[in-house]
From TrEMBL:
It comes from the Bacteria. InterPro entries: Helicase/UvrB_N, Helicase_Restrict-Modif_Enz, P-loop_NTPase. GO terms for cellular component: cytosol. This is Type III restriction protein res subunit. It comes from Thermoanaerobacter italicus (strain DSM 9252 / Ab9). GO terms for molecular function: ATP binding; DNA binding; hydrolase activity. Residues 60-343 form the Helicase/UvrB N-terminal domain.
């Protein structure tokens, strides 16, 4: 039975989210899901999640994003839930009973409302984009009488940084001339992920024309819906003069404040600022309230929660505003909340309890994100320097005299020294390892210091610069007010440094209070020093969230990072490297919070700062070209344009056509005596004729003349098609430009056909063109057909254009030292082999290098040698890319080699790759010798069993490759027959 006592939600909403996920996944796997949604939704879900499309894209939604999208759509479109209570009752009545009815009686749960819990750094913005696209396209193309979809959207950000990020995502970044470039928006950059081709233009038009900034709400006129973007201050009625606005001119109210610091009447609530603010807020709310439907999307929605004051539950101001907006819409108000921390907290110490928002529909937690490598692995740095002193003897709050801050405590200084020491070691090795030829790196680690308040941050900056040796431009200080906001005059300067901080070596350290709690979505935060003493879980989780985004995203580092996660989280060992590890300097006041993370398997611990001589990169090394690399260099020929016969076209000209000479025009006209057709009447029984009347020639109008010409064109096309069917031709039947041909026929008739000007609409002339037995029509067709056929035979043979991509154009490889071996007959000092089941390739590399017949060879690395690929048709019929394993040169023979375990030799996709490779080899060997290194190219699918058996019998590498090639001869013969058959069919 439902509980009659309100004891809070606790973790019951997470249980509900798990149950919903089970149901959704079962229906998705059984294909039942797609049968229950609209055709538009079917299109989107197939495009976003089916393997057919996913395998063709560079970017895809990860499992957490996919689950959030599916769960939300299922709850809204399949369940058609009209409230949070109904959503629970449709999924699991037992969980509803456990939660209790009282939790769901609040008016703010009495409409479709969904909360998406996703760990910070796991891409909730992409989910937001997908759901907006889903709502808009359904509202536009499906029957929307039910009110389940809307074209109106209100995106609510928690502060300036998230607000700016949303504008960047929808409108694009501001360029050097101060204009937002839509080409840099998420919807253009990731168009292959978000938008199917058939919907792309309509969505681009909607987004570009209908985004409304916060100061434009209620003022900007939009034609087909709206995407209003604001921060919560607009809804809360806060004074926005103190925060960033898009205008470079100070607001009049701010100027009044400077001129009149003491404003009469403020105690009575009659200040101009208050009245003006209330008026403007009223305009925005009135406009949003009067809309017939809307989807509200709250980014970082933990801000929209209840607070308890004097024992009474109170709604925050911006939630009250949402209630007002919803009050006029019923089920046409839809709310989607996003947060990594969607909960309130009651109690403290052991009695502290998290109460999760009841409308959570998906829980993609931090632990799962870390285990899947979607965010950094968290490490607590527990320094011996700290452990050697009694914690109680150290103060971790700033030193104060009364309320005035006069300096940093010893505990704070220890934490700053530890953090900076770690940063310097990371910086030295990360930057050096990733420098390019010009000495520029793309990996600049940063440290984030979270201070107690704005009075402390100047002392932190002073200590870092004057005592720890940093330069002034190494540190950026971001002071904010109690809401975490920055004044407009300071914001423009700050954001330029802040938003591009990953790309530049300086600043190295960011010092802040609350400003960077949300939306500070940079990748290179590697060290966090939390000097705040607050124990609030939400604040702590938000602080950690600032450093979670991945820094080392390249696929070449995935394996070494995965090994690190196993060492830290499963084996409880020190990390072997610090790639994508977030180090948090231990603060004793946070021990309870840290212990929870450790117990949940979310973090590892380190007790030693790595020595500056130790590698924080693990066994990663950089391998460059040898001094004599030219002796072993190979190139991969890329056919930019095949050798082909090209029709050299010229424009048809009436001077190329002969006039009609069988009968003079005057003679032809005598055959036509009437000015129009004569009709008469005849009685049907005795055939009495009477009442002749003439039908004017006007019935032959421009439409009739056009039809006459179109029939001639059709006859010409038929004639040429028959000519083009001759097998002697090696090119397809030529396409005809119908518009151009119609024009030339008209000019020919009017100017050349009869050796004089001819107007078909004058003096009944048109009838001449229709006279039988005169050969006029046949003459026109023959002249045009002959000219076109001669054009088709005007052929030039072009040679193939070949791009020679030398492997030495990739001057350096990054690899793991423990999984690579030194080589001689290669352009690189070492070559890598796979860490998993890489024994065959390792042995092959050693054997190649030792064989005296081998001139040179290369192990193809698809990350670096991304130009060495062939296209093949997969089992499911789609085109995919394929990277062979090796290229080996032996004398005048070059072998493109794929090494395979014996069990995979006859795999359907492997055979398809083989056919594609043989077809490519045939093209290469038809090139001029200088375009294929004066060698004959071969493709070899080399089985492990064949390799080891022949090697043990003393065979050379060439003998092994030729034998393997011979055993695959049937495949090559089949391919040749197939190609010949296709050629015959084409001809």
């Amino acid at each position: 039975m439902p509980s009659s006592i309100n004891i809070g939600t606790r973790d019951i909403p997470l249980k509900f989210a798990r149950r919903l996920t089970e149901i959704v996944n079962a229906e998705w796997d059984s294909k039942a899901f797609l049968n229950k949604v609209s055709p538009v939704t079917q299109d989107l879900l197939r495009y976003w999640f089916s393997d057919t499309f996913c395998q063709q894209r560079k970017y895809n939604f990860h499992q957490g994003q996919k689950q959030a999208i599916l769960n939300t759509i299922y709850a809204h479109e399949v369940l058609k839930s009209s409230s949070v209570f109904e959503m629970y009752s449709l999924i699991d009545k037992d969980i509803l009973a456990e939660l209790g009815l009282k939790e769901l009686t609040n008016e703010k749960y009495n409409y479709p409302k969904y909360a998406i819990k996703m760990a910070t750094g796991t891409g909730k913005t992409w989910v937001m984009h997908a759901l907006l696209i889903w709502q808009y396209l359904n509202a536009k193309y499906e029957d929307n009488q039910t009110g389940r979809y809307s074209k109106n959207f209100l995106l609510v950000a928690p502060g300036l940084i998230v607000y700016e990020r949303l504008l960047d995502a929808y409108l694009g970044k501001v360029n050097e001339i101060g204009v937002r470039d839509f080409e840099t928006s998420d919807f253009v950059k990731y168009k292959e992920l978000f938008i199917p081709d058939s919907y792309r233009d309509i969505l681009y038009s909607f987004i570009q024309n209908n985004v409304v900034k916060k100061e434009e709400i209620g003022k900007k006129v939009t034609g087909d819906g709206m995407i209003a973007i604001c921060n919560w201050h607009v809804l809360a009625g806060e004074d926005e003069d103190e925060i960033y606005n898009d205008s470079e001119i100070e607001e009049p109210s701010a100027i009044l404040k400077d001129l009149l610091p003491i404003t009469p009447g403020t105690t009575a609530g009659h200040s101009l600022d208050v009245l003006d603010n209330n008026f403007l807020r009223g305009q925005e709310l009135e406009f949003l309230t009067n809309l017939k439907d809307i989807v509200v999307i709250n980014d970082e929605a933990h801000h929209i929660h209840e607070v308890k004051i004097a024992g009474e539950i109170m709604e925050v101001e911006w939630q009250k505003s949402l209630n007002v907006i919803a009050s006029t819409k019923g089920q046409r108000f839809i709310q989607i909340d996003f947060s990594a921390t969607p909960y309130n907290v009651t109690g403290s110490g052991q009695r502290r309890t998290k109460h999760y928002f009841p409308h959570i529909v998906v829980d993609f937690d931090l632990k799962t994100a870390i285990q899947n490598g979607l965010v950094k692995t968290i490490v607590l740095d527990k320094r011996k320097e700290i452990a050697s002193q009694k914690m109680a003897e150290l103060d971790y709050k700033a030193v104060r005299e009364g309320s005035k801050v006069v300096g940093l405590s010893d505990g704070q200084k220890i934490m700053l020294r530890a953090g900076l020491q770690k940063l310097k070691i990371l910086e030295e090795q990360f930057v050096e390892f990733t420098k390019d030829k010009a000495g520029v790196s793309n990996k600049y680690p940063k440290m984030l210091v979270i201070c107690e308040d704005t009075k402390v941050s100047p002392f932190v900056v002073d200590y870092l610069i004057n005592y720890l040796g940093l330069e002034e431009d190494d540190v950026i200080q971001i002071d904010s007010d109690k809401k975490g906001q920055v004044k407009a005059s300071e914001w423009e300067v700050i954001k330029q440094k802040l938003f591009n901080i990953d790309s530049h070596p300086k600043p190295k350290v960011i010092v802040s209070v609350l400003m960077l709690r949300e939306g500070f979505d940079v990748n290179n935060i590697c060290v966090i020093v939390p000097l705040r003493s607050s124990e609030a879980p939400i604040l702590l989780e938000q602080i950690i969230g600032r450093g979670l985004r991945l820094m080392w995203r390249e696929s070449e580092y995935e394996e070494i990072k995965r090994e690190n996660r196993i060492k830290l989280l499963q084996k409880k060992e020190e990390p072997s490297n610090y790639l994508d590890i977030l180090s948090i300097i231990e603060h004793p006041r946070f021990m309870e919070f840290y212990n929870e993370l450790v117990n949940e398997g979310l973090v590892g611990e380190t007790t030693e700062i790595p020595d500056s001589k130790e590698s924080v990169l693990g066994d990663l090394i950089r391998v460059g070209l040898k001094e004599n690399y030219q002796e072993y260099d190979l190139y991969f020929p890329i056919i930019v344009q095949d050798s082909e016969e090209i029709i050299v076209t010229k424009k048809l000209d009436i001077d190329d056509f002969s006039p009609y000479t069988l009968y003079p025009l005057d003679t032809l006209k005598r055959f036509v005596t009437q000015k129009g057709d004569i009709f008469y009447s005849e009685e049907i029984t005795v055939k009495t004729r009477f009442g002749n009347y003439e039908v004017s020639a006007d019935v032959f109008n421009s439409k009739s003349y056009n039809e006459y010409i179109s029939k001639i064109i059709k006859a010409i096309s038929s004639s040429i098609e028959k000519v083009g069917q001759r097998k002697t031709k090696r090119f397809p039947f030529m396409q005809i430009n119908v518009a151009e041909l119609a024009s030339i026929i008209d000019r020919y008739i009017r100017k050349k056909l009869f050796g004089q000007d001819f107007n078909p609409f004058e003096d009944n002339n048109w009838r001449v063109l229709l006279l039988n037995n005169t050969g006029i029509v046949e003459h026109i067709i023959n002249e045009l057909s002959k000219a076109i056929y001669e054009m088709q035979n005007n052929v030039e043979v072009t040679e193939a254009i070949v791009l020679k991509k030398y492997f030495s154009e990739v001057p350096e490889l990054k690899m793991r030292e423990n999984y690579s071996i030194p080589v001689t007959k290669c352009i690189y000092e070492r070559l890598p082999f796979p860490t998993h089941n890489g024994g065959f390739e390792k042995d092959f590399i050693i054997f190649c290098d030792a064989d005296s017949e081998v001139d040179s060879f290369i192990k193809i690395n698809e990350v670096y040698h991304n130009f060495v690929y062939l296209n093949y048709i997969r089992k499911d019929g789609l085109i995919a890319s394929y990277y062979p394993d090796f290229i080996v040169k032996i004398g005048d023979q070059i072998y493109l080699i794929e090494t395979k375990a014996e069990k995979d030799i006859d795999n359907e996709n492997v055979l398809s790759k083989e056919k594609a490779a043989l077809s490519w080899i045939k093209k290469i060997n038809s090139l001029k010798p200088e375009d294929r290194m004066h060698c004959t190219w071969n493709y070899v699918l080399l089985g492990e069993k064949t390799y080891y058996t022949m090697k043990q019998n003393g065979a050379s590498l060439k003998e092994i490759l030729e034998f393997a090639k011979l055993t695959r001869y049937a495949i090559e013969r089949t391919l040749d027959a197939y190609l010949e058959d296709m050629e015959d069919r084409r001809l």
